[in-house]
Design goal:
By secondary structure, this protein is mainly alpha-helical. The protein is 54% helix and 11% strand. It starts with a helix and ends in a 5-residue tail after the last helix.
Length: 113
């Protein structure tokens, strides 16, 4: 198998296969023995989880934002210029900051797991 496809540091052409260990985690087996880390525990694996979570969040938020902007314009409430010019209160800023920190913890918390 290719080193790049596995992402595990084995040289291209090295014999290996995936197996379940006694704890139920996937591991790479080589002729020499078991790889040191189960699949899903490397920095690359965690980075992929982060990228996937962020991608899902971005897609949903973009769609919802586009729908809201269309509704606001259609109903004559306000347009994008007014959104850009708006300055939230200190209390609103505090609420947004708390939500932002919670989001970052959810996404990047997988690096601690």
């Amino acid at each position: 198998m290719d080193k790049d496809r596995l992402g595990n540091g084995f040289a291209a052409g090295t014999w290996c296969k995936q197996v379940l260990n006694s704890k139920g985690s996937m591991q790479i087996m080589t002729r020499e023995g078991t790889a040191s880390q189960p699949l899903g525990t490397t920095v690359a694996d965690r980075s992929l989880r982060i990228a996937t979570a962020l991608s899902a969040e971005v897609v949903v938020l973009r769609e919802r934002l586009a729908l809201l902007e269309m509704l606001m314009v259609e109903r004559g409430l306000f347009g994008p210029e007014e959104i850009e010019a708006y300055r939230p209160s200190s209390q609103a800023n505090d609420g947004m900051k708390a939500k932002r920190l919670s989001f970052l913890d959810r996404v990047f918390g997988s690096m601690r797991d």
